Amino acid sequence: MKVIPLNLQHDSQQLEDVAHRLSHTHHPQDWVGGVRRAFGAVTLVPSRNTAELEAQPPHFLAALWKPADSTGPFLSRLPTHAMVITPDAITAVRGLLAEVPLNARLWLANTNIDWALVAHIVMLAEKRLEAYQYRELGAFAKSEERVLMASISVSYEGGDSVFCQFVRTSTGGLD
């Protein structure tokens, strides 16, 4: 899946009224958020009672973390808020800002967010998901997990025989 980062400079006109609440560089007191397109528009097949197709807009995942505290420079693995928002990234940013205190700023991170985890959180926590949303978020999470496994495989390699044996193992029997 291609990552389409949110371009604040390109979208700045649509965010003009809240631009003062967005930080272009990270500061320790900033809330940290991320927005990622989870899946594109979906057309639902009609039920037996109707012949009209139902179009659903693209869906975006949004995640938000409180500022890192004095105990360390790292954010929690689990976001403070995780949500799925339609119909566009601008609406998702506004959704994040609704959770940030009015006197605080939001910095949007482009990397280092576990989007599969965010999708799983939404799937477990959001009770009003429709079947197509659950299905599409599940597919998104699986895709993200495959990308992560491929990245680990490429980035953490070793040349010794013990490592080569380890790479061929499966965690299937450890559960």
Averaged pLDDT: 83
Molecular shape: flat
Strand order of the largest sheet: 1-7-2-5-6
List the uncertain runs.
Answer: 1-5
Strand coverage percent = 15-25%
The number of helical runs is 5
**Class based on secondary structure composition and strand pairing:** alpha/beta
Largest sheet: 5 strands, mixed
Radius of gyration: 19 Å
Order of helices and strands: HEEEEEEHEHHH
Termini separation: 29 Å
The percent range for helix content is 25-40%
Describe the oligomeric state of these chains in a short phrase.
single chain
DSSP, total strands: 7
General description of the model:
This protein is an alpha/beta fold. About 30% of the residues lie in helices and about 20% in strands. The protein contains 5 helices and 7 strands; from the N terminus they run H-E-E-E-E-E-E-H-E-H-H-H. The strands form 2 sheets. Strands 1-7-2-5-6 form a 5-stranded mixed β-sheet, with helices on both faces. Strands 3-4 form a two-stranded antiparallel sheet. Helix 3 runs antiparallel to helix 4 (about 130-155). The longest helix has 25 residues, at about 130-155. The radius of gyration is 19 Å and the shape is flat. The two termini are about 30 Å apart.
List the helices and strands and how they pair.
Elements: H1 8-11, E1 22-23, E2 31-39, E3 42-44, E4 54-56, E5 59-65, E6 81-85, H2 89-97, E7 106-108, H3 115-125, H4 131-155, H5 161-167
Parallel strand pairs: 1-7, 2-7
Antiparallel strand pairs: 2-5, 3-4, 5-6
Helix pairs in contact: 3-4
